[in-house]
Design goal:
Shape: elongated
Number of strands: 8
Structural class: alpha+beta
Length: about 200
Amino acid sequence: MRSVPKSGDAFAAALARVRAVVVRPEFRLDEAPAPARLAPSALALTAESADPDSDRASGRFVLLHDPDGVEEWAGTFRAVVFVRAALEHDLIGDPLLSEVGWSWLVESLAGAGAESAEAGGTVTCSSGQSFGSMADRPTDGFVEIRASWTPIATDGSPVEFAMERHVEAWIDLLAHAAGLMPVPQGISQVSSPRSRRRG
């Protein structure tokens, strides 16, 4: 049986779980500078296409931790995510796309077993059509999902020991938005800023 960690150890335990996450091969994850004023402790991840010639989907995951808890969070951790993806042509202008985008988040959390509370966010759909000398260019569109939720534990273990599930839910949300088929995870790992290739 795991002992309940001290508050300083709780974030360290969460980081260990987050950094051990494995992701599907279409994405590359990196650690990025975390916001310094939102919580005493924070971690930020960015996601980009593993294909340097593709910018179909990208995103950001931020994990905040305040050992004293935050009333608005109803907990000591908060996950904040952003996802942006290009839309398939047949989805551009779909009046139900915002509701569908939010359902992707709900399904991703459930599929990853990421228990959560106080979830909220926005789904923004945009498109652009060219005219005049540029009229032959195809209409393009994007969906942006911004959301946050409070990770919780329901199996008796401290929530930090399940934090990888929340990152996995975000990755699954990216895949949904990018229109990717479900595939088994287990190919590549989160990398630190020191391991990023610099051109």
